[in-house]
Prior knowledge:
Layout: H1 3-15, E1 23-25, E2 28-31, E3 34-41, H2 51-76, E4 80-83, H3 85-89, H4 98-104, E5 107-112, E6 118-124, E7 133-139, E8 152-156, E9 162-166
Antiparallel strand pairs: 1-2, 2-3, 3-7, 4-5, 5-6, 6-7, 8-9
Helix pairs in contact: 1-2
Region (Disordered): 143-167
Amino acid sequence: xxxxxxxxxxxxxxxxPFPGEGTREGRRSSGPGHHVCVLQASRDFWDxxxxxxxxxxxxxxxxxxxxxxxxxxxxxxxxxTIDLWPYxxxxxxxxxxxxTLCQLSGTMLLWRLxxxxxxxxxxxxxxxxxxxxxxxxxxxxPIPTPPDQTRRRSVLTPRGSTSSIxx
Length: 167
């Protein structure tokens, strides 16, 4: 798939209506207010997880990502980098597509569009044996505020006593 092909998929996602309930079609999952699509996937690593094989796959996906980022940046300006880790660690589950993205990736690049929708790109992998994926997500809901990461909690210290820390 070329950069132009991936851009066409992004444009299709932006124009596609959101379904009333969760659906899956090929490499795209959709639900109320969101779409997530795998734009490119590496091979899986069940048989060969050698450093050379994994690095080659990472480079291939990164090249595809960088080309698409350059095209989208020309169209909509510099993206925001969103840390997805807080959405995974929050007490309340994040809404879609954030929950899907945070289970696969640590960050996403986000463009907010004048239409009220946003588009994000992320690179993720479900587990070391699974393919590395370049993902596009489109949604219309505002990006939820990350869960509060400054909660105080008790932890067990090496000597067996408890201590309160800020996280």
